[in-house]
Amino acid sequence: MAEVEASEQSGGAAPRPPRPWREPWRWLFAPWMLAVLYPMVAVTTAFWGTVAIALATWSQRVAFYCGTVWAWWLVRVSFVRIRVTGRERMVSGQSYVILTNHQGDYDILALYGFLGREFRWVMKEELRRVPFLGWACAAIGHIFVDRRSSARAIASLEEAKPRLTGGVSVVFFPEGTRSPDGRLLPFKKGGFVMARQLALPILPVTISGSMRVLPKGSHIPRPGRIRVLIHPPLDPASWPSDEELIATVRETIASGLDDSERQGRVGRD
After folding, report:
1. Going by C-beta distance under 8 Å and a sequence separation of 6 or more, which residues neighbour residue 208?
2. What is the reported pLDDT for 217?
3. Is the predicted pLDDT of residue 11 greater than 50, yes or no?
């Protein structure tokens, strides 16, 4: 059962690492995942994708919340709990450039279903062609970038700027891809450049535990808990150079990871 806990505290204790996946009782969930979760993914993606496409012709903001229902439901049937802390740090009506680490596919469900904020993803162009999911994301106004061409990627971000007003934020995975072992990868500059150009605050977010739920290379999610920690927003103008700003944001996000994630020991505990 999904669990969302809003906290007034800035952090809280890191989640205790779950027991290893090799324990026999965990394999009892595999038939459920294969017989129930996967069909549910197909059915809900097709249904809510179609509804989002239809609603987007009237209001992209309303269509966005089709994804929230979709993500919330898939988390529930996966026996995954989501704990969000620091939500009170987001000011109502304020748009942000949200920068978060990327551990796995459940990062998307955790943010979409439980962040409690309307946003637009920055995602790779190839996802636009995914039936229902990609079509709905395009209709809602999520931002597709061609990672093979810097010029086209920049043009896509420029085109998206008018959408980021009135509390609509933008989400970047500055690592660019999923971490293979929990440790943060080097950050790319795109999100930081956009934050400076739009004079928007950066909202660092740490996702912890996602890799244990669905490790890279695995196709069967594991029951578990994911923690989403929202850090205090940062004003890019307070850092004279991009290098200093990137280092600060990276250190902030890393501070929310547990010891095994910081040391790259996820999957070996």
Report:
1. 14, 15, 103, 226, 227, 228, 229, 256, 257, 258, 261
2. 73
3. no
pLDDT band at 12 (very low <50, low <70, confident <90, very high): very low
Instruction: Tell me what pLDDT residue 222 has.
Output: 85
SS (H, E, C) the chain: CCCCCCCCCCCCCCCCCCCCCCCHHHHCCHHHHHHHHHHHHHHHHHHHHHHHHHHHCCCHHHHHHHHHHHHHHHHHHCCEEEEEECHHHCCCCCCCEEEECCCCCHHHHHHHHHCCCCEEEEEEHHHHHCCCHHHHHHHHCCEEECCCCHHHHHHHHHHHHHHCCCCCEEEECCCCCCCCCCCCCCCCCHHHHHHHHHCCCEEEEEEECHHHHCCCCCCCCCCEEEEEEECCCECHHHCCCHHHHHHHHHHHHHHCCCHHHHCCCCCCC
Kindly report the pTM of this predicted structure. 0.85
* Range of 33-42, 72-81, 118-127, 174-183 with top mean pLDDT: 72-81
Q: Is the pLDDT of residue 5 over 60?
A: no
How many whole angstroms separate alpha carbon 88 and alpha carbon 108? 21
Confidence of residue 21 (pLDDT cuts 50, 70, 90): very low
Higher pLDDT, 46 or 144: 46
Tokens of 128: 């636009």
User: Rounded to an integer, what distance in angstroms lies between the CA atom of residue 155 and that of residue 100?
Assistant: 22
